[in-house]
UniProtKB/TrEMBL annotation:
This is unspecific monooxygenase. Its EC number is 1.14.14.1. Its cofactor is heme. Keywords: Endoplasmic reticulum, Heme, Iron, Membrane, Metal-binding, Microsome, Monooxygenase, Oxidoreductase, Signal. It comes from Carlito syrichta (Philippine tarsier). One of its GO terms (cellular component) is endoplasmic reticulum membrane. Pfam families: p450.
Length: 413
């Protein structure tokens, strides 16, 4: 009986604390649906289609509203105007990365995607500079993309025009481009290490978007105690980390500071340059996690875009025919396309952008956070314990979609 009384008291205190925190926070935050104690608005969210839920809520509460995911308030920005005002007009204040507990457990705040503050700025700046100027006069990223495109075409030709599922092949191509930039060399599509790496990235991409992951990120305390797909994600992340670390050690043994071969070499050279700085962010932990981030950000997103583009072109053969005509006119069939062709191919460029708009690749994006207390549209958004999720409802905003369709004369719907 004593144990039962203690449990009841603890639960009552937890409920009161939850009610107090919610009532205190809601005084200055944007409006939103009334949350329940502890679980917040979880029951009002369709975890299988969060995008649709956010769109419906924006019609009731406006483009800026508040949801409670568990005990924590989440301010949602919906539509072009709200997103632009926050991320462009107040870019510095909204530049923080929000909480993503499962990823944080694996990378512990290192890397570029889930880091914050000084670390994020330095690693992001270095990564962008290295990717833009990669090789110091060696082969450019464009050369590697062209090479991989030729390999992709050859793999497709092997099907001899018979029905096939191109998902695997379309996943290999972007992953191999990243491999060539990070590890210097591309892999054969049947290489065991390459296939194992690709399998883990694909598996994690699928599991990270599952309803169970939404629950884990809302109630992170359960991560250490309950079974589920989050454990598979963490295991896969550790496996890829081990593989990258092995590659880093190989690079350290053969490093030539005067002749960097790839991204890892450039990072190792930067580590040597800053080895006497105790505050340097260029350490092994950041290198391994940044490499993982580059794979995670570039592989699944690109392969999914390619897959949907193929599907939409099959669905709209009249659009495919016009793209083919423009390609034959500008590029022909005797050379590979290059970035200089883009300005001469407005129709193809418009189709690519329309595909990206139509598929709404990452509807809720990654969570953002404000870096300090800020007054936004007459609401006070506090730095402490607030996580910002942005929803790119701008992709379906009639005002801007119409402009895109008129200018491009393409509508894959």
């Amino acid at each position: 009986m004593d144990l039962f009384v203690i449990l009841v008291l603890c639960l009552s205190c937890l409920l009161l604390l939850s009610l107090w925190r919610q009532s205190t926070g809601r005084r200055t935050l944007p409006p939103g649906p009334t949350p329940l104690p502890i679980i917040g608005n979880i029951l009002q969210i369709d975890v299988k289609d969060i995008s649709k839920t956010l769109t419906n809520l924006s019609k009731v509460y406006g483009p800026v509203f508040t949801l409670y995911l568990g005990l924590e308030p989440t301010v949602v920005l919906h539509g072009y105007e709200a997103v632009k005002e926050a991320l462009i007009d107040h870019g510095e204040e909204f530049s923080g990365r929000g909480s993503f507990p499962v990823a944080e457990k694996a990378n512990k705040g290192y890397g570029v995607i889930f880091s914050n503050g000084k670390r994020w700025k330095e690693i992001r700046r270095f990564s962008l500079m290295t990717l833009r100027n990669f090789g110091m006069g060696k082969r450019s990223v464009e050369d590697r993309v062209q090479e991989e495109a030729r390999s992709l075409v050859e793999e497709l030709r092997k099907t001899k025009a018979s029905p096939c599922d191109p998902t695997f092949i379309l996943g290999c191509a972007p992953c191999n481009v990243i491999c060539s930039i990070i590890f210097q060399n591309r892999f054969d599509y049947k290489d065991e290490d390459f296939l194992n790496l690709l399998e883990k990235f694909n598996e994690n991409a699928m599991n990270l978007s599952s309803p169970w992951m939404q629950i884990c990120n809302t109630f992170p305390a359960i991560i250490d105690y309950l079974p589920g797909t989050h454990n598979k994600i963490l295991k896969n992340m550790e496996s890829t980390r081990s593989y990258v670390l092995k590659k880093v050690k190989e690079h350290q043994e053969s490093l030539d500071v005067n002749n960097p071969r790839d991204f890892i070499d450039c990072f190792l050279i930067k580590m040597k340059q800053e080895k006497h700085s105790q505050q340097s962010e260029f350490i092994i932990e950041n290198l391994v996690n940044t490499v993982n981030d580059l794979f995670g950000a570039g592989t699944e997103t690109t392969s999914t875009t390619l897959r949907y583009a193929l599907l939409l072109l099959l669905k709209h053969p009249e659009v495919a025919a016009k793209v083919r005509k423009e390609i034959d006119h500008v590029i022909g069939r005797d050379r590979s396309p290059c970035m200089q062709d883009r300005s001469h191919m407005p129709y193809t460029d418009a189709v690519i952008h329309e595909v990206q708009r139509y598929i709404d690749l990452i509807p809720t994006n990654l969570p953002h956070a404000v870096t300090r207390d800020i007054k936004f549209r007459n609401y006070l958004i506090p730095k402490v314990s607030l996580f910002l999720a942005r929803h790119l409802g701008a992709l379906e905003d009639p005002k801007f979609v119409i402009r895109l369709q008129v200018s491009s004369k393409v509508n894959t719907r």
